[in-house]
Amino acid sequence: xxxxxxxxxxxxxxxxxxxxxxxxxxxxxxxxxxxxxxxxxxxxxxxxxxxxxxxxxxxxxxxxxxxxxxxxxxxxxxxxxxxxxxxxxxxxxxxxxxxxxxxxxxxxxxx
Amino acid sequence: xxxxxxxxxxxxxxxxxxxxxxxxxxxxxxxxxxxxxxxxxxxxxxxxxxxxxxxxxxxxxxxxxxxxxxxxxxxxxxxxxxxxxxxxxxxxxxxxxxxxxxxxxxxxxxxxxxx
Lengths: 111, 115
Prior knowledge:
A: five-stranded antiparallel beta sheet; 0% helix; B: mainly beta; four-stranded antiparallel beta sheet
């Protein structure tokens, strides 16, 4: 079945870059996603990438996609304390009828 | 505010009981998804409804059931509750049925504690 794997924790200092990695199994997805969950809240879409792209940049966020290795990464430049949250990688299931999420990477930013 | 409303926000009940969680999707959204979030399992997809019909099933237990009503709100019914059912249950909505670039809008969740 479909599976999305992420590392569970990342700790960085304010001002550093953060890189969160994800691997997925279903290679037929048209889009891959990053969602963010702040404490006590639901998930919010952070960014997404179309599967025929290698890279997408959006202000401080850079998404890299390696389709051959089924690897997705999210880089946050100049990480701020407000970026502390759980970040989820998401991929469609094979039927395209639901989003399957990784377990989430907890990003902790210290000042 | 995502526009998705979930009630109740918190629920404490005993093993063996039955509860109903309610979700109102964003105005105009036809799809409703239910997810269960726990520390050990992460965010697990349970079920997807589109315009009143079941579209996809994930890791939903037989003790759990859901439905989507004509006004598009959805309910998740959890019965014969066990300690391990304690979790945060999220509802999310989107405009379409499947495929394409589907942004999901999540509610704030219903936290269920089974004692």
